[in-house]
Amino acid sequence: MSDPRVGNASVTEVLLSPDFRHAHVRVSLGGQVDEQAATLEALTHGKTFLKHQLAERLQLHRTPDLHFEADLDAALAVKAPQILKRIKRGRPKPEKNATS
After folding, report:
1. Among 51, 47, 70, 72, which Cα is nearest to 62's?
2. Residue 13: closest CA among 2, 23, 1
3. How far apart are the first and last CA of the chain?
4. 52, 53, 57, 67: which is closest to 21 by C-alpha?
5. Three-state DSSP class for residue 30
6. Distance CA 26, CA 47 (A)
7. What does the pLDDT read at residue 65?
8. pLDDT recorded at residue 74
9. How large is the angle between the packed helices 33-45 and 47-58, nearest 10 degrees?
10. How far apart are CA 93 and CA 11, in angstroms?
11. What is the mean pLDDT of each run of 10 residues along the chain (100 residues)?
12. Is the domain defined by 9-90 classed in CATH 3.90.25.10?
């Protein structure tokens, strides 16, 4: 897609319904919150174009309707090490067991 609103986005997972009518596309989004919202809006706006492209390339009997959603697991995976470091710094050091 050549839409300038689609910034740093990567497809992380596609969940296809059993009847192949719907595809839930999870997208890892980069940038600030407003940029992420613009990217999702652009993908949703361009889903007819994307569906047409899929129909040409995949030659499926039925091309599914596309539903885009942010992949929060991917965002958490990026932030998790930073969160763990902050938690570790906030905890007191374990006391050594005194042998009596």
Report:
1. 51
2. 23
3. 71
4. 67
5. coil
6. 14
7. 95
8. 66
9. 60
10. 41
11. 78 91 91 86 92 89 92 73 79 60
12. no
**Which secondary structure element, helix H or strand E, spans residue 86, and what is its range?**
helix 72-90
pLDDT at 50: 92
Give the up-direction half-sphere exposure of residue 55: CA atoms within 13 A in the CB hemisphere.
Answer: 13
8 contact partners, CB below 8 Å, separation of at least 6: 29, 30, 31
Can you give the pLDDT at residue 97? 63
- Retrieve residue 52's tokens: 């047409």
Sheet of 65-70: strand order equals 9-16, 22-29, 65-70
Residue ranges per structural domain of the chain: 9-90
Strand segments (E) across 1-100: 9-16, 22-29, 65-70
Alpha-carbon distance 97 to 100, whole Å? 9
